[in-house]
């Protein structure tokens, strides 16, 4: 028997075209994968124009071509919905210099392209340079699952004052930077150097034979979480100039900070000028200097941190180091500092566990400090409450009076009140007799 097959050429052609279009649409929606091939110097400089990549594309760095010196990206721009992703492929990728991002937005660097916990390992034999450098007009960048060892800095995220107006505050904000789930060990300076420590532009910058004092770019919406930072010459995590948005530092483990043995460096976590942030659920132990240093302005919350051995590092003891130290700095325009500090577990320190200084008289009267372990010491002229919703306003003038003297003063006040009342009654009786 002969089998008949009905063929409609028009229908078949249309179906093939539809399937081809659907396949093309899927590839476009998901983005394409582009393999990065290193150059003769074992590194690669990439731009969007050179690669022909678009938002949603993935740039794959193959471990098979190890080792690499650097991957430098300039003018890579994804979108919020479709960031450009840079990922390892086929194992852990090893670099010496690390990654640099100049004028990049909506980019994600992730070491999740293999079974390795950290898909990228950055290590320099001489400990030079930052592991990840984010500067110029960059924003909306996420970096995760990197192992950074023996560098000067783990992360360098800032833009100092520059001759170009476009790189001066307030003309750009390095915004929406997320750094999480990385390991940073043996840094020659900070584990993370985020934002300039010269927020008022006091340093000289030479431009066309003229000296100017431009302000560095501000940061905003910085999130630093779930990182391991161990054995830094200076501070573990330092965030400055973060004047915008919601800045958070949480869930990090910072240990053995301050091997430079400088009492003005070597803090666990530092908040510099103009910075407001929420610092919580961090574990900080063995810092040559302070556990947490707060020099910022605006609303700052420090809660549920575990801090131990502030001022103690491998047999070195530094006097005057608090678990949490707070001070004020000059801001322009003037901004007040309002602190909420609560539920911190504070252990060994070489000073009071919480110590407030007052270099500039810019504290708000709405400070709240409660439910922390250990002691506190307040400079004169600072006000706070010891409960978030009730309780009277405390002042450091009253708190500086020794308890025994307070009792005598209270008793004297009561006695004076009784004497005054008796004097009034006596005058009334004399008036009636007269």
Concise synopsis of the structure shown:
InterPro entries: Beta_helix, PbH1, Pectin_lyas_fold, Pectin_lyase_fold/virulence. The chain is mostly beta strands and 434 residues long.
Total beta strands: 39
Helical proportion, percent range: 10-25%
- Counting helices, strands and paired strands, the structural category is mainly beta
Radius of gyration: 29 Å
Low-confidence stretches: 1-29, 398-416, 423-427, 429-434
Number of helices: 4
Keywords for this entry:
disordered N terminus, 4 helices, mainly beta, globular, single chain, 2 domains, disordered C terminus
Describe this entry's structure for a reader.
- By secondary structure, the chain is mainly beta.
- It has two domains: 28-406; 407-434.
- The chain is built from four helices and 39 strands.
- The strands form four sheets. The protein has a 20-stranded parallel β-sheet that branches. It has a 15-stranded mixed β-sheet that branches. Strands 16-17 form a two-stranded antiparallel ribbon.
- It comes from Deminuibacter soli.
- This is Right-handed parallel beta-helix repeat-containing protein.
- InterPro entries: Beta_helix, PbH1, Pectin_lyas_fold, Pectin_lyase_fold/virulence.
Note the topology.
Layout: H1 9-30, E1 33-35, E2 44-47, H2 48-51, E3 58-62, E4 68-74, E5 84-89, E6 93-102, E7 105-110, E8 120-123, E9 130-135, E10 139-144, E11 146-151, E12 153-157, E13 173-180, E14 183-187, E15 192-194, E16 205-207, E17 210-212, E18 218-225, E19 228-232, E20 237-239, E21 242-244, E22 248-250, E23 253-257, E24 269-271, E25 278-280, E26 283-287, E27 292-294, E28 298-303, E29 306-310, E30 312-313, E31 316-317, E32 324-326, E33 337-342, E34 345-346, E35 354-356, E36 367-370, E37 376-378, E38 383-385, E39 394-395, H3 396-399, H4 403-433
Parallel strand pairs: 1-3, 2-4, 3-5, 4-6, 5-7, 6-8, 6-9, 7-10, 8-11, 9-12, 10-13, 11-14, 12-15, 13-18, 14-19, 15-20, 18-21, 18-22, 19-23, 20-24, 22-25, 23-26, 24-27, 25-28, 26-29, 27-32, 28-33, 29-34, 32-35, 33-36, 35-37, 36-38
Antiparallel strand pairs: 16-17, 30-31, 38-39
